[in-house]
Amino acid sequence: MCTLIFALRIMLFLGNLLKTQVSATRILMTAFTMVLVLNLQRVIPEVITASFEIRLFHYLHISVLEKRHVVEPIDCSFACLQNVFCVSFNAAAVADGKGKYWCELLSRNMHSDAAKLAANYQSHHYSLSQNSCGGEICSSQGKCRAISSRDGPFECVCHPGYVGKHCEIAAPECLNHKVLSEPDRHISYGRGQKEDSSLIPGWYRFQSYLYEKMLNYSVGHHKCHSDLTGWLKGSHPSIENGIVDREVCFFGYNNCCYRRVHVRVRKCNGFYVYFLKPSPPGNFRYCAV
């Protein structure tokens, strides 16, 4: 309880500070985002902090994600941290006739659009600090982005071909791979004569409106528009697991693993890639879900 009261006092102090005309052109504000909100009572099982750089009496002229009116300017910081696209906001320098402040949530900040930041005696501009990413820095292969999450207010968005919490892992196969997109690879399709015996060895991604990864459990035979259905034996890896070795089993003749093929699997950002070899001769096919 004492911690909560102290945090609220800091919020009120910073809110009142913005009502005064200060000579400094930039200050730092710490915003405490409430993880759970029930009616008017804010319950805080965990406190998340984020730093905002403030440019007093300035306005960033870019498209607005959302505009709202709040009791205190610090409430805009709560709204920004709860919006996955928000990285900055403009807020009124003084309250209106009803005692409220307008604020505009923005998807870019004063660093990315410095030329659009202009002096304005009616507003202040707030940008999420660039040197914080949940307390750690993204690598040069990633970009820090604000999120609303119990894991922290930031995440690293990786450039193509890189993965990891800080985009520190080079994964060229996540960028350079072929795509298997035939709808009839899905297990909802029945018997057929499709096969993968002519598949060129390499990295592949399963991507269709019907599926997103290789089947990883046995469904019997006569599926995926083939006779002997291929399924990944073992679980899919996490990003931290890197590239893992797996087997693909082909169901046939009442045997869930009538034939086997060695494959490799990596998790990329939001999808998986597989190093596949040609299937055995005949109606053997890799299936997807």
UniProtKB/TrEMBL annotation:
InterPro entries: D8C_UMOD/GP2/OIT3-like, EGF. Residues 129-168 form the EGF-like domain. Pfam families: D8C_UMOD. Disulfide bonds join 158-167. Keywords: Disulfide bond, EGF-like domain, Signal. This is EGF-like domain-containing protein. It comes from Pocillopora meandrina.
